[in-house]
Amino acid sequence: MSMNLGPLFEPFEVKSLKLANRVAMAPMTRNFSPGNVPNDDVVAYYKRRAEGGVGLIITEGTTVNHPAANGYENVPFFHGEKALAGWKKVVDAVHEAGGKIFPQLWHVGAVRKEGMEPDPSVPGYAPSGMNRPGKVVCKVMTKEDIQDVVRAFADAAADAKAIGFDGVEVHGAHGYLIDQFFWEGTNQRDDEYGGSMANRQRFAIEIIKAIREKVGPDFPIMLRFSQWKMQDYDAKLCQTPEELEAFLKPLADAGVDIFHASTRRFWEPEFEGSNLNLAGWVKKLTGLPTMSVGSVGLTEDFIAGTFASKKEAVEDAGIDELIERMNNDEFDLIAVGRALLQDPEWLVKVKEGRADDVEPFRKASLGELY
Ligand SMILES: Cc1cc2nc3c(=O)[nH]c(=O)nc-3n(C[C@H](O)[C@H](O)[C@H](O)COP(=O)(O)O)c2cc1C
């Protein structure tokens, strides 16, 4: 393990957000909010990570106020008095522990199946009714549906600001609704929301602009996006740096302050001919603050598990390479998921050189982690 952890522990500022260090907790769905309300256990869970010293917590995906936003049981909502009161307790606890926190605002799109909470009769909604290319499984969104969801994201961001969150992350990654619009595989519309990338990203741009309108100029908006989809790890929205630049610029112009480039392994080069990872390219192309993510602090065993296809070779996820990339100014912030899920004190232990004390992540233990 590197002795020079310098870049991890430098402060970072963007707009009204002042972070004590460069490490964020990645958003991780937990299904531990019965009645879709974050309860005191949820408060304690986030508080523990804030006490463990992470600069920023990004909450688990929390759903905006649309009948089809939710896709899983016991996921916390981000609307309604009870759920927002629960989130306010989370915010206050994290702030008391010296941390900062963004909610991850989420609509699952076609991942939703009938039978799901809150109204089992509501199907999934998606740009072309597809969760995977070519197979219509749910409702094709009308323009009115699109505007309803845009408004729901904006309202959620306004509520986030009102109850004291430090910014918002919009979940535009991994094959959920916003990404279903981005990805031509699941967006086969022939109106202004489909076709070219400029059209496919119109939905996200409208969401970002509507949020900005509600939260004002200083409240940070982060957009999480990914090339990979749950439905297809090898999918790519952008095949070249030129395509990536064309994708990012209108989103930045719409009001994105931080791009969170979701990759499964932070050390993997994104395009041939350069060692830069996806976040590195985003920073190079936009100049905006950028967050990377993917298998930080994991041992080989579980890199090969969740988020890996079996045929892929497993490489070293050492922290040295992370430090080197941050020293090179490749990206500004790093999100850590499973390592922090397993061990709330992960960052303290890394800082104190007690890597041997870190509890290794076991996929089997996911349900037991608080
Ligand atoms: C249990 C679990 C739940 C997750 N839920 C979400 C989620 O709600 N939203 C999201 O954007 N990513 C989610 N992810 C992906 C993580 O945010 C992260 O990108 C991924 O785990 C890779 O980071 P890591 O290797 O540090 O764990 C989840 C990952 C795990 C393991």
UniProtKB/TrEMBL annotation:
Pfam families: Oxidored_FMN. GO terms for molecular function: FMN binding; oxidoreductase activity. Residues 8-356 form the NADH:flavin oxidoreductase/NADH oxidase N-terminal domain. It comes from the Bacteria. One of its GO terms (cellular component) is cytosol. PANTHER family: NADH OXIDOREDUCTASE-RELATED (PTHR22893), OXIDOREDUCTASE-RELATED (PTHR22893:SF55). This is 2,4-dienoyl-CoA reductase. It comes from Marinobacter segnicrescens. The lineage of its organism: Bacteria, Pseudomonadati, Pseudomonadota, Gammaproteobacteria, Pseudomonadales.
